[in-house]
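Rotation project, supervised by the postdoc (A.L.). Task for the rotation student: set up a whole-complex structure prediction and record inputs and outputs verbatim in this book. Inputs entered:
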Amino acid sequence: MSEPILMKGNEAVAEAAIAAGCRYFFGYPITPQSEVLEHLARRLPEEGGAYIQAESEVSAINMVFGAACAGARVMTASSSPGISLMQEGISYIASAQLPAVLVNIMRGSPGLGGIHPSQADYFQSVKGGGHGDYKLVVLAPSSVQELIDHTVLAFEIAEKYRTPVMVFGDAMMGQMMEPVFLPEAEPAPIDRSWATTGMKNREKPNIIHTLYLPADDLENHCQRLFAKYREIQRQEQLHTAYLTDDADILVVAYGIMSRVARAAVEMAREDGIKAGLFRPITLWPFPDQALFQAASHAQAVITAEISMGQMIEDVRLAIKDKVPVELFNRIGLVPNPDEIYEAIKKKAQEVKVSA
Amino acid sequence: MKREFLLAGFGGQGVLSMGLFLAYAGMGEGKKVAYVPSYGAEMRGGTANCLVTISDREISSPLVSDPGVVVVMNHPSLLKFEPVVRSGGILLINSSLAHRDTKRQDIESYSIPTQELANQAGFSRGSNMIMLGALLEATGVVDVTETYNYLVKTFNGRHLDKMPQNMAAIQVGREFMREYRQQSEASIAYA
Amino acid sequence: MPKGYQRPSTLVERPWHFCPGCNHGIVHRLVAEVIDEMGLQKETVGVGSVGCGVFSYEYFNFDGIGPSHGRAPAVATGVKRVLPDRLVFTYQGDGDLAAIGTTEMVHCAVRGELISIIFINNTLYGMTGGQMAPTTMMGQVTTTTPRGRGQAQGHPFRVCEMLATAEGAAYVARTAVYSPAQVVRTKKAIRRAFETQMAGLGFSLVEVLSACPTNWGMNPLEALKFVEEEMTPVFPLGELKVPEGVK
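Outputs recorded:
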């Protein structure tokens, strides 16, 4: 294996896209995501691709729609307020069954919020965001290396199912640097005989649209989409479980928070508290059965989030309210491990499992 | 073994470059590293700081509330970060811009007049490199024979013409720190 | 040798959903004829819109995309950047292009994007039942200007005049189809727009003043007369910009 490279999260996303064979990027500047844009503005022309700084995120997502229609491997990236503007386009991309990768380097919100790290777009992306019955696959990496790996994985899933896939980062992951290895092989090309590339080798035109005026047509269309989503739920769930088998206190966290939570769990274990960490990697499809099992020994569950509590709803559904689920949260920053450790300790005392 | 370095100052003082240097040095020695900069509005003329973790093991959290080594390049950074140094840790103060010594008794602290030293060395913009030299001497964190290579990586191969000056500034910082420590030991011996 | 009316091979044999007297059908046919004559059926990707033009992909016998409301120029941009040698055009009405899609249209022109826009101006929102559009004329009654468009509703938006100021816009023309002579001119303009694109000269747009008898409450002949007598003074016909090389 070659030497690791020290890389910033945002640059890593950009290089991962290139390594995955993506040659088209459409975006709009927004802190803390702009380095993705800047990096690709320089690199894509070198790779024979095209890059456009769009006039808005609304336009950017529709350029993604067009490039995907034309059969390209395509990506956009933005941060929370910009992702809000893209929601209409995401609904169309999902309905038109186009593969596309979207990256959200989340920042503080609502409104203009701030440029701090955040995980407050969980509801928006995991539960919907745009109009209508569709699902967005959401991946939650927790390191710069995983930003790379999951960007590549996002292209694979997007193309396997012809569906949009979102990669979640946050302001800290976008800016922090870690040593990484870039992938050496890009995902194999898929059949794109459906693409609107001009009829060159066809007698019949390809049409990509999302309008189903007869009620039966719309119902059939939604049923087809959801058959696909059920298959994704069966095939693509990812998670990691750390010291969960005997855990009295189970912490559930994703993304950057899962790393902080892991450090807190290690601190608790050193103090004799049986704590464990469950980390969903796919937020949709949410690994609910795996979480249910990981929580089988738990007396209490803590979800750690940089939001006012969003994933906690999926956690409660997954463990079927067997034990109390409480929120540890901070807004505007990634907490230090000791803060989560204190929450674990307090909870252990409450449920009388402290050492 | 895991060491954390918090480097703080105002934008333009080169604290982020010092952090990058440490990250490359850690990688060069086969360690796991994480580098978390402050960013955004803070970059525009405000304070700049970064946290570097170098570890033998996978780094779970890239954040730590009580770093073992803290460098403060100006007075506001001293006020802000003096309290977070881990007990028994090291605080390096740029006394050219921070106007007092530490008040804590439970840490090692060194005041280094980086600007004056840089001026004397004829490299007035090299105060961050003076501090880096002092830090390397005080912490022994990297094999200093590789310093040149890490510097080239830190600056992404740019400013190659400045490298001899940077190396000279680092050397000045190291020597200052070595004498500083000898004197401290001597004064302790007298006491 | 065929005589008289022939259906262009790029037009599907299907009855229009358009109202009697609507001009959309004529413009669809002209687009198809030009693509036939340029031999580009297999090289073309058409991008529709939302409004009365929403089913354009069902009438054209070439690859087609149905985008969201107003975003056709952005979608066309995405297609064209991936497939730079194809003919890529959008077909948009005045609500789609000049209201909700203004941003996409303007920046496409500013970038000099190598696409063509066929823009149908019938002064109102047809599909949704005749509401005011940015192109509604002063005093004109629509379902949302029941007392006629007044100062409070602003003034009619002249898209061609605005886009002609963009350096990236190479061919900009406004035509009509109220008479055979105007139909011929419109066809020529569409051809010039497509030639501008294929020659890589820049962005191109043809605005076609069109009749909407249903929402205007007129019979088809009255509607054509309305276009000629009422619309052309507000929206003057002509080529505003023609690049060297397509003249």
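Student's summary: The beta strands of chain C are 44-47, 63-65, 87-93, 116-121, 124-125, 131-132, 169-176, 203-209, 238-241.
Supervisor addendum: The domain at 24-241 of chain C is CATH 3.40.50.970 (Rossmann fold).
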